[in-house]
Amino acid sequence: MPLGQGFHPSRCNHVPHSHCQLVSVCNYYYSMISIFNCEKKKKETHFAVRRETSLFSVLMEERSHFLLSITFLLVLQYSSLYVAELTIGTDATQTNITTDQAALLALRSHITSDPHNILVNWSTTTSFCNWVGVTCGARHLRVASLNLSYMGFIGTIPPHLGNLSFLVALSFDNNSFHSTLPHELSYLRRLRFISFGYNNFTGSIPSWFGSFPKLQSFYLYGNNFSGSIPATIFNLSTLQVIDLSINQLSGSIPSAIFNLYALQEIDLSNNQLSGGIPRQLGNLTMLKKINLAHNNFNEIPKEIGNLDKLEKLHVLSNALKGPVPVAVFNMSSLTMLTLYENSLSGVLPDNICQHLPSIQVLDLGLNHFDGPLPSKLWQCKELLILSLEKNNFNGSIPKNIGNLTQLMMITLDTNNLTGSIPSSIFNMSKIEELTLGMNQLSGSLPADIGLGLPNLQLFYTEANDLSGVIPNFSNASMLTHLQLHQNSFTGFIPSTLCALTNLECLNLCMNNLTIETSTLSCLANHGNLTRLLLGTNPLNARLDDSFRNCSISSLQHIDLRGCSMKGNIPIDIGNSSSLIELNLGYNQLTGSIPTSVERLRNLQGLYLNDNKLEGYIPYQLCQLDKLVELVLGSNQLSGSIPSCLGASIRRLSLESNSLSFTIPSNFWRLVDILHVNLSSNSLIGPLSEGIGNLKVVLEVDLSNNHLSGIIPSTIEGLQDLVNLSLANNNLEGPIPSSFNHLLSLELLDLSRNSLSGVIPSSLEALLHLKYLDFSFNRLQGQIPTGGPFQNFSAQSFVSNRALCGAPRLHVPPCKNGTLEPNWRKAKYIIPGIISVILLVASVSIFVLRRKKNVEVAREANSLPQLLWRRVSHLDLLRATNGLNENNLLGSGGFGSVYKGKLSDGTYVAVKVFSLQLEGAFKSFDRECEILSNIRHRNLIKIISCCSELDFKALVLNYMPNGSLEKWLYSENYSLNMLQRMNIMIDVASALEYLHHGNSVPIVHCDMKPSNILLDDDMVAHVADFGIAKLVGVGDSTTQTMTLATIGYMAPEYGTEGIISTRGDVYSFGIVLMETFTRRKPTDEMFSGKMSLKQWIANSLLLPDAIIDEVVDANLLEKTKQEHDVETWRDCLSSIIRLALACSAESPAQRINMQESVATLNKIKNKLLKDNGGVQ
């Protein structure tokens, strides 16, 4: 029986009458037992590794047993004083009693709060020896013990307590005493036990604590002491326990610690101590426990290996680095070794367990250990907890690890372990937690995994390469957490999971699993399940069937995103009133958002994006006053934005819907919102000055709407703003100079508006700006050169009215002298200018009215009659539902393309030119001219043109399969090897025709995947000739403004404006690389001197290089499954080498398109031949 167990004060009643004076001391002893049994529960968490689990309670040697043994000795020693005290005179005794009473009354007066009225009986009408918390010696009636622990007092310690000269034990634990400790306490020279734990004492630890010659136990944990540890404390040669944990102490441990030769326990955890652990600690051979956790110590001395009685060593969460001294792994007395969360490195000794025969807890997680796991771990027969997670261990898990039959916890996650999980692990019947996630483990799990693991509670194997089916866990009835996500499991999710009544978290995301409706339904109605995470699996179920009749459940998190879910969102979803997060994004859900969501009053995140939902956004969402994230983008929602959204919203994503009307004024009252995306809707009206209220917003995207008016100057208040996009609206007026206050801005896109005036030079202050787009506006004046502007290219300023600046920006140089008018002269000049303008305008209107009909006829007749099918402006409006945004196929440099249906049922693509943009007229004329005079199966076919004074459009063949860009990067689209090759042959054939099939070579100038369209049969057609050029004799020309796309344009085009067929060849080479690598040339991985071309060249031109490093992983994986890998590797290598030949830096070194077509056909024919004609 542990010391103190079963002890009760009533036992004192059985001692002989001659020793009845010990009864009061027995009472004190019993109170100390109660206090420290409670104290043990609070302190366990501070030296028991880091986990909040009852498992560590089993492992921890109770602090109280040791403390009580000391207390018991103190009681015996104190009782021996009785005989000596018989000689004390009665008068002297009475005087001293009065002194003790006065000291206690002073203490009472310094206690300002006594919530439990404990001090009511501290009255002069009764003996202070009977007061609560006071214990006296029976003979001399002096205070021997003062124990006011766990009483909830608030107050300070008076100096009068220094008069309790017979005090042996002083304990004020778990109160709220504050301020500093009075120096007068140093007079208590008989003290053997001091405990001030869990109070609010401040200042430095007084040096006079070193003046107690008999002190054995010293506790100051859980206060606010700061400064260094006074060296005087380490002169207490009788000290056995010191606990200064959970303070704010700094500096190092004084080397004088070697004086504490009787010390058995030291706890300095949870401070800010630093430096090395002193070597002198190795001289304290009586030590059984060291706890230095949560400090900044950087070294464990090898001398610590001299402590042959040490049982527990805790140095977790420090700054230790380098290898662990071998001596530590040779301490045969150790039962607990916790070095978690440091920077320790090296390889663990293979025979580590041979010298640690008693080890029960081995925690070396979150370090930098590497090498294989020790193969002889099975020799640690007493091991209960093995924690080696978050290191760099490699190799396989030792097969004999199953011999550790006492193990209750194994955590090996986040390493580089490979191979299969040893079968012996699944027969360790005492295992409660098994964590193997985030490694490279493979193989499958045993079919009846639960049979050998009846006590399993947590099973984590996420982010590995496990395969096969989900096994039967039904016999693991204690299971609470099951995480198998990010693996390659297949088959049905077993219905037996529903039988795990204790299951709280189920995470099977990112596998290849399916599910029966009944299984999903029972999981949705599970009694204890709080997290149901099945996202990114092809579940292919109907949501309304699975959640129909859904009862009130404990579910807090549902993740079914990307699961091919169909059907409606059921009304019964409102019964899941505990829901905190509901993620149904990236599915095929239809119908409307049910109004029953208003019952989800605990909901914080609602994600319904990328579905096919229709109807209005229900105002019932406004009832969700805890809603933090509302993500409804990429649906077909209509109506207005609810004006009642709650103030709790931090993220609002409503992009790519059909929302209309103005942004409600109440929206600008969401002062705590962080992310706003309302882009690609039909919102109208001015941008409110209320935007300035969003003081903490980080991202605002209002692009692709119909917003009008000026940009309000109040936007300057958004000083945390990182991304701002107002692109493609109808905004006008100047760019506010107050933008310079947006110092956190990294992205600013104001393109495709009608902004005018100069670019404010104050924007040079935006030093974090990485992306800027002011293109397609009416800006004028000098482009600033300072700050971030030196990093922007011509693409940021293209198509404005009259910008000037550096040659690299492809704008004219600015004229000398000020751009500002002389206002003294202006007042005379301006009236004259206005008169001239009015005269010219009147004449122009008259002439235009007379010539209007002639002009329209002339433009229409400029097209060959053979091609021209008469289509009027009204016909095109009818065909496109009034240019409705639901018909919008895409937008380009000079306009937008809409899907239309002519009166005879023919589907067409209508390219409408934005005539307010500079160059739009020329682009229309050029595209009409070129497309009307060329014929090729791989070029987009023109059906008609519509040309009026204020409206110009091309009517083109509709390509139902969209662009190559869509097929490369959209989630639900993929191309196999031959499809990609055929598309590239089609494109090459089209370019060959343009370059060599006409009397005058035609240069496309903007070859990229978005300009390659695919018909019903996946035949490619090159489109968008808006900036094409007829180069004539000499095969090249020049132009002053570059309109081609960054990443695809040839170097000589971007730097010198040289246009030639060789430039198209360069662009084709880049597109060829992109098609087979699925990497855009503008990918963020390409910066500085590293480009797509350079990356491929670096990967392929090395002697041991293989194509796998650069080719699209999806393409390669499918190839490996279906075909001879080497043949396809040869084919891909040939294609990539052709791409590099097309994109040579020098135009003279590039091959032409005739050679490219021939080479591609040769590669294709060889591939088909080697694979027996396989498609």
TrEMBL record:
GO terms for cellular component: plasma membrane. It is an enzyme of class 2 (transferase). PROSITE patterns: PROTEIN_KINASE_ATP (PS00107), PROTEIN_KINASE_DOM (PS50011), PROTEIN_KINASE_ST (PS00108). ATP binds at residue 911. The chain crosses the membrane at residues 828-848. Keywords: ATP-binding, Cell membrane, Glycoprotein, Kinase, Leucine-rich repeat, Membrane, Nucleotide-binding, Phosphoprotein, Receptor, Repeat, Serine/threonine-protein kinase, Signal, Transferase, Transmembrane, Transmembrane helix. The keyword Heme does not apply. Its EC number is 2.7.11.1. InterPro entries: Kinase-like_dom_sf, Leu-rich_rpt, Leu-rich_rpt_typical-subtyp, LRR_dom_sf, LRR_N_plant-typ, Plant_receptor-like_S/T_kinase, Prot_kinase_dom, Protein_kinase_ATP_BS. Residues 883-1168 form the Protein kinase domain. It is found in: Cell membrane; Membrane. GO terms for molecular function: ATP binding; protein serine/threonine kinase activity. Gene3D superfamilies: Phosphorylase Kinase, domain 1, Ribonuclease Inhibitor, Transferase(Phosphotransferase) domain 1. This is non-specific serine/threonine protein kinase.
